[in-house]
Amino acid sequence: MAATHLAITVELVGGAHVDDLWPRPGRILVAARRTTFRQFADAIDDAFARWDRSHLHMFTLADGTEISPRAWWDGEEPDGMLDGDKITLSRLKPGERFAYVFDLGDHWAHLCTVADRRVDPLETLGIVPSKPLPCWGWGSIPDQYGRQWNGDDGESDPPPDPHGADLPPILFGWGAPARGPRLIPAVDDDAPPELHVRAVQRFCENRVPDHALHQVRVEHHVKGNTVTIVERRAPWRPDAGPEWTSVPIAKLTYAQQAWTVSWADRNGRWHRVDDLPATPSVEPHLAAIDANHGAVFWG
Questions:
Q1: 200 phi/psi in degrees, rounded to 5
Q2: Model pLDDT for residues 25-72, shown as the tens digit of each residue
Q3: Is the CB of residue 146 less than 8 Å from the CB of residue 34?
Q4: Which residues contact 44 (CB under 8 A, 6 or more apart)?
């Protein structure tokens, strides 16, 4: 399918119950250009976990144009306001930035940014959605009223932590001691997060252009809490046999919820890159490998 849909990054800037947020939690929404602004508002509120929708909302474009469902205003809408039930996202331009406010009293303000290029929904989401859907996200979303627990009135202390004793014994580790065979393994804090491993996979796949894959490839292998990146090369002459050679490039180690990176010497011994600190995200280390930090990764 062609690149027909908009990708719009929505970042929560702040609201009455929180200070200005930084880093800002965000979601990237994929939406058809025929989507109305009211439909897009509903998608934002879904993505940001709003459960009480009985509040006015408004979009404000960079030129000051205001967009909100006119039916909500009972004839008292601001002068020049456009009807969010009729105006569609087709009026947005690549790279355009605009604002969305949910609950004009509590003023949950969002910065919206249209991507420079449209996206293929099948490639990005795996489906052609009937409404805007998020394809990526980050950050913790605060409750729209700032509540931290059921019954929070803003004055009382939270209930004591029962440390799981209040959970019924439905899943392993809940409530009463589990009976019978263990069905769910214990969580390994040092197991590399799946999303991080996928980032390494994408890095390897994008490292070599398609036209050169018959000669060289970059691959990754996961073992325990490590992910090893290797470079594989095709036989350089016919009498060398059919096997591809492998050269270790980098070893990423996940421990105590942080990544470190090592390089391999000519004897295959690994050495930690001491001037690259442990980080909760694997991306800084992938960037260092890509840039051949210290000239230790790529020959």
A1: -65, -40
A2: 999 999 999 999 999 999 999 999 999 999 999 999 999 999 999 999
A3: no
A4: 10, 27, 29, 100, 102, 110
Nearest to 259 by CA among 278, 274, 276, 273: 278
The CA distances from residue 272 to 61, 114, 253, 261, in Å, are 49, 41, 10, 6
pLDDT, tens only, 139-163 = 999 998 888 888 888 778 888 888 7
- Which residue in 103, 54, 97, 58 sits closest to 80, CA to CA? 58
CB 38 within 8 A of CB 84: yes
Write out the H or E segment, with its range, that includes residue 286.
helix 283-290
Average pLDDT value for residue range 9-25 = 90
Q: Report residue 67: phi and psi, to 5°.
A: -130, 125
CB 19 within 8 A of CB 146: no
| Among 41, 179, 145, CA closest to 100 | 41
What structural domains and CATH numbers belong to the chain? 6-138 (3.10.290.30), 194-295 (no CATH)
Q: Among candidates 2, 80, 84, which has minimal Cα distance to 37? A: 84
Question: Residue 126 carries which DSSP code?
Answer: S
Tell me how far the alpha carbon of residue 269 is from its chain's centroid.
35
How much is the CA Rg of the chain, to the nearest whole Å?
25
φ, ψ for residue 73 (rounded to 5)? Answer: -95, -5
Give the pLDDT mean for 266-279.
89
Q: Taking 60 as the threshold, does the pLDDT of residue 180 lie above it?
A: no
Mean pLDDT confidence for 126-133: 94
Contact 291, 249 (CB under 8 A): no
Q: How far is CA 215 from the centre of its chain?
A: 33
Q: Please give the pLDDT value at position 242.
A: 63
